[in-house]
Amino acid sequence: MGAALALVSALSYGLSDVVGGIVARRMRAVHVAFLGQLGGLLAVAVAAPLLTPAPPTLPDLLWGGLSGLGTGLAMAFLFRGMGRGAMSVVVPVSAVGGVALPVLVGATVLGERPTWPTWLGVGLALPALWLVSRAGGPARGGATPGAVADGLVSGVGIAIQYLALARAGPASGLWPVLAGRVTALAAVGLLACTLMRAAGTDGERRAGAREAVAAGGAGVLAAVALGAYLGAAQSEFVTVAVVLSSLYPLVPAVIGVAVLGERLSRGQVLGLVVALAAAVLIALS
């Protein structure tokens, strides 16, 4: 059940990325992120008391709030790296770091001991995520120390998001996710204000209500992903839940080819095949 929830999380996150990416063609990416966090917050605020009538405990809310701060940290440094023109470096470093650190913590701190097929799947998933996340062609800025550092810090933020949320109690329901959306919204709002002051109003892309609603919908999908991950982490090893949930880059890649007519590089195709093999190994272990 835990592995299935983690795969649902990956699917929801991947669909969120697809919707958010399409909207970002008409709206600043940081505004898409802010409206997404707002949409996720509103959705979870409605769902949490309905699905979990019992009031949350303070530790569960604090773990959820810390998870949201990790989300904000990840977005801040991801956007900074992408702003430097180093997307092909920052995105894969962030994706792999966000998986590797929770796996390391799970094995060394939490004492998790998955089976050897699971470890084999984890070992395959890390290079697969790197390959799938790599943008085709060189990026302006390249693999500079600053770009790598932005990717690493973003990966730390993703790791905090996953590890903190996994510490919430089994009876917490969606309350930790709600607390995380509050702190993430505050962090992304601060980021949006900072970038707006830095960039001014020149070149601002105008977007209407339809784009705003779509951005909010992307946030709702991301909130569903976090809720599914929370359920997975409460019934599975964190190592398993994080790795399977982090396979979400496969979804935009597949939809890009099947629906949007995009072309993948040979490395991305190889990454897709290896990632699917890794998912099968982990899910069936």
TrEMBL record:
Please give the SUPFAM superfamilies that the UniProt record associates with this protein: Multidrug resistance efflux transporter EmrE
Parts of the chain that traverse the membrane = 61-79, 86-110, 116-135, 147-166, 178-200, 212-231, 237-260, 267-284
The family note in this entry says:
Belongs to the EamA transporter family.
Instruction: Could you list this entry's UniProt keywords, alphabetically sorted.
Output: Membrane, Transmembrane, Transmembrane helix
Instruction: Give all residue intervals belonging to the EamA domain.
Output: 2-133, 203-283
**GO cellular component, as recorded:** membrane
Which protein, by its recorded name, is this? Multidrug transporter
Q: Which organism is it from?
A: Pseudonocardia halophobica
